[in-house]
Amino acid sequence: xxxxxxxxxxxxxxxxxxxxxxxxxxxxxxxxxxxxxxxxxxxxxxxxxxxxxxxxxxxxxxxxxxxxxxxxxxxxxxxxxxxxxxxxxxxxxxxxxxxxxxxxxxxxxxx
Length: 111
Prior knowledge:
Blueprint: H1 2-26, E1 31-37, E2 44-50, E3 55-56, E4 59-63, E5 67-72, E6 77-82, E7 87-92, E8 99-105
């Protein structure tokens, strides 16, 4: 019986250990608006990251310490933002096999 309780305790501890970084990352800030620029064309746009809701432009996102991942159904792009460099990449599926796009986002400076 002790073995069962020990196993249960280990499973709960493991689960909390996995969830804690996600909770801490999500609780860092409220919302953040970043300006991203296509280096080839110079076109720029803004993305809004909501750390509490784990969304980017209202789309569900996975936010880790190093990257933010999300899918935009409007253009079918799977986006990855590197939180250290500001590099943004997108992989978009298409009938011809798909393509990738790259941009750079101006990150907020720590206060």
